[in-house]
Amino acid sequence: MGSSDSGMFWVIVLVIGFVLVVGVIVFLMMRGRAKKLSGLAAARGLRYTKRDDAKLGQFGGELYALNVVEGERNGRPFVVYDSTRTQEDDEGGTSKSVAVVAVGTGRRVPDVRCVRRKGLFGGNRGVQTGDPDFDKRFTTAASDGGFAAAVLTPPVRQLLLAGKVRWFACRGDAVVLCTDGKYPPAGLDGVVDRGFGLAGAIDPSVWDRLPPA
After folding, report:
1. Taking all residues of the chain, what is their mean pLDDT, rounded to a whole number?
2. How many domains are contained in the chain?
3. Residue 105 and residue 84 share a domain
4. Which residues form the domain of 128?
5. Do 117 and 191 belong together in one domain?
6. Residue 114 — very low, low, confident or very high, per pLDDT cuts 50/70/90?
7. Is the pLDDT of residue 28 over 50?
8. How far apart (Å, rounded) are the C-alpha atoms in residues 1 and 203?
9. How far is it, in rounded angstroms, from Cα 188 to Cα 36?
């Protein structure tokens, strides 16, 4: 083996070693986070499931639903889990981590989905709220335009414009909020608070007009 071949061999070995080390570190971090969330859920009287992909069809997300935490607050059920979204780029798309929180309404709700746009050009081609800033930043689709208008009031739109909200939906019997990134175990309450804060910003009379779930 020549010197150039030997040099290339050791470069490959170092790259493989680096990838393995990074992989082990990521695995240990994920396992540690799951263990902390499991312990936190048990201490709070909540239910923890390592993976439940059925939640994707029920509430939304892509690829998987991991670290699922379920419980109740003030008589209303909620669920929080890790999932992904696809970020489009020049190479087709990259999976990004997101946190999904769903709050039960006790009602069968018409479908509404607001997705933050990648850019600020082109405007909202779906339901128009009459709020230029919101319609510029979110694309809204709804099975019932009147229900969407009743839900997307100024307080709700302001909450969606703030922070790292990726998408918002009404589906099934729940209000669902998706935000970018993974939350630390100590931030579980904050994620649940955001979900209930958004649900609480919707006029209660909206639910009174809907049939029970």
Report:
1. 86
2. 2
3. yes
4. 47-208
5. yes
6. very high
7. no
8. 75
9. 11
How much is the pLDDT for 94? 80
The answer to whether the Cα torsion of 48, 50, 54, 58 is positive or negative is positive
Best CA proximity match to 109, nearest among 139, 140, 142: 142
Q: Are residues 32 and 69 in the same domain?
A: no
Give Cα 204 distance to the centre of its chain: 24
> Is the residue at 213 inside a domain?
no
Asked whether the beta carbons of 71 and 40 are under 8 A apart, the reply is no
The last residue of one of the domains, among 9, 27, 45, is 45
Q: Tell me the pTM.
A: 0.82
Strands 165-171 and 174-180: antiparallel
In a domain, residue 77? The reply is yes
Q: Which of 183, 147, 149, 148 minimizes the C-alpha distance to 163?
A: 183
Instruction: Quote the CA–CA distance of 23 and 29 in Å, as a whole number.
Output: 10
Handedness of CA 108, 111, 112, 113 (dihedral sign): positive
Q: Which residue has the tokens 């990134």?
A: 181
